[in-house]
Specification:
About 25% of the residues lie in helices and about 15% in strands. The strands form 3 sheets. The chain has a 4-stranded mixed β-sheet, covered by helices on one side. A 3-stranded antiparallel β-sheet has the order 1-7-8, with no helix packed on it. Helix 3 crosses helix 7.
C-alpha cells in the first residue's frame, strides 16, 4: 500500500521561475499554482503551497487536512515532510565538521561503539552515511526480509554488526539511497555530543522555525505531538483515500531519541522531518553556506 502523506509544496521549478514575477497578479499566480498542484491531489488530503516571489510570500491551500472532521488545509496546518528531514541531519554533521568537532572520514563505529564488534560496518564513515554512499540498503528489511515487527535499538545494532558488503554494496563505491544510513548518522551525532538529536537541532540550528515540532518518545516506541500542535496536524491517506493512522501520532523503530526514527502510523521506514507549516521560515535552510563533495563514484 502506497502511503500518500499530504505535504507542504515549495514551487521553485522552471515553470514558475521562467515567468516575470512583477507581471503576475496574485490571482494569476494562484491559477498557475493550481494547474501545477491539481494533478498531484488525490480524493482525500490536500496540499499547502508557500511561494516566495517578488519579495513577498504567498500562501495557497488545497483540499482537506482531515476529511472526517471536515477540516480544510490552511497555511498553519502541520505536515510530515518525510525525507526532507535528512537535510537537517546532514546540516548538523556539516556544521560539526566545519567546527572541527568531527571529520567526515571518521568511522561511524568511533561514536556508535557497539559497532566495533561488527565486520564491514566498521569501514563506513560519517561522510558516506550523509552522501548515501555507505553501501547500506534503504531499509534493514531489504537485508533481513525475515525480520518481523519494528526494530528495537538492539535489533538495529545486531543487523548492522551482521551486515556484509558485496560488489553492489561497497562503502564509498555506489550511490544507494539509504534511510538506514541517516538513522545511523543521527545515532552517531547523538553519541558524539551526548545530546538527543531533537535538542541538537534546536540548539545548533537556530532557524526560528516556531511551527516545527519533534515528537519524541517518552519511554515507549511512540512519540506524540503536543496538543497545541496535534490539533493542527493533517491526517495521512493512502492512494485509495483511506486514512492512515491518526493525525499527529507517530511511532519509532526503537525506543531511542532520534527524530528521523519516527514514521506516520501505518508507514514503514519513512524518514521524518518534524511536522511543520507553510508559514515556517523554510527558506532559512535552503542555502547551505558550504558542503563537502563525496569522492565516491556512482554506479
Amino acid at each position: 500500500m502506497r502511503v500518500m502523506t499530504p505535504a507542504v509544496a515549495l514551487l521553485v521549478g522552471a515553470t514558475l521561475a521562467s515567468i516575470p514575477a512583477r507581471a503576475q497578479s496574485d490571482a494569476e499566480i494562484e491559477q498557475l499554482v493550481r494547474r501545477q498542484v491539481q494533478p498531484a491531489l488525490i480524493a482525500a488530503g490536500g496540499m499547502a503551497v508557500a511561494l516566495n516571489i517578488d519579495a513577498r510570500t504567498l500562501f495557497f491551500n488545497y483540499g482537506m487536512a482531515d476529511v472526517a472532521r471536515q477540516q480544510p488545509i490552511t497555511s498553519d496546518s502541520l505536515f510530515n515532510l518525510a525525507s526532507v528531514g535528512k537535510a537537517f541531519i546532514a546540516t548538523l554533521l556539516a556544521q560539526a565538521v566545519k567546527q572541527g568537532e568531527v571529520s567526515p572520514d571518521d568511522p561511524v563505529a568511533k561514536y556508535v561503539t557497539e559497532l566495533a564488534q561488527g565486520g564491514d560496518i566498521r569501514k563506513i564513515t560519517l561522510g558516506q552515511l550523509a552522501t548515501h554512499t555507505s553501501g547500506l540498503d534503504r531499509t534493514p528489511h531489504q537485508y533481513e526480509p525475515w525480520h518481523r515487527g519494528p526494530y528495537t535499538l538492539a535489533d538495529f545494532i545486531r543487523y548492522l554488526n551482521s551486515w556484509t558488503a558485496d560488489e553492489a554494496h561497497t562503502p564509498g563505491k555506489q550511490d544507494i539511497y539509504s534511510n538506514t544510513g541517516f538513522v545511523l548518522l543521527s545515532l552517531a551525532l547523538e553519541r558524539r555530543f551526548n545530546t538527543p538529536i531533537a535538542q541538537l537541532m534546536e540548539t545548533r540550528l537556530p532557524l526560528g522555525m516556531t511551527s516545527t515540532a519533534l515528537p519524541v518518545p517518552r519511554g515507549t516506541a511512540r512519540g506524540q505531538l503536543a496538543e497545541k500542535f496535534r490539533r493542527r496536524a493533517v491526517q495521512g491517506y493512502n492512494a485509495d483515500a483511506k486514512p492512515v493512522g491518526e493525525p499527529g501520532l507517530y511511532k519509532a523503530y526503537s525506543p531511542g531519541r532520534a527524530p528521523d526514527r519516527f514514521f506516520p502510523r501505518g508507514a514503514t521506514w519513512r524518514a521524518f522531518l518534524p511536522p511543520t507549516s507553510a508559514r515556517c521560515r523554510i527558506s532559512a535552510i535552503c542555502k547551505p553556506r558550504w558542503r563537502w563533495r563525496s569522492k565516491a563514484s556512482s554506479r
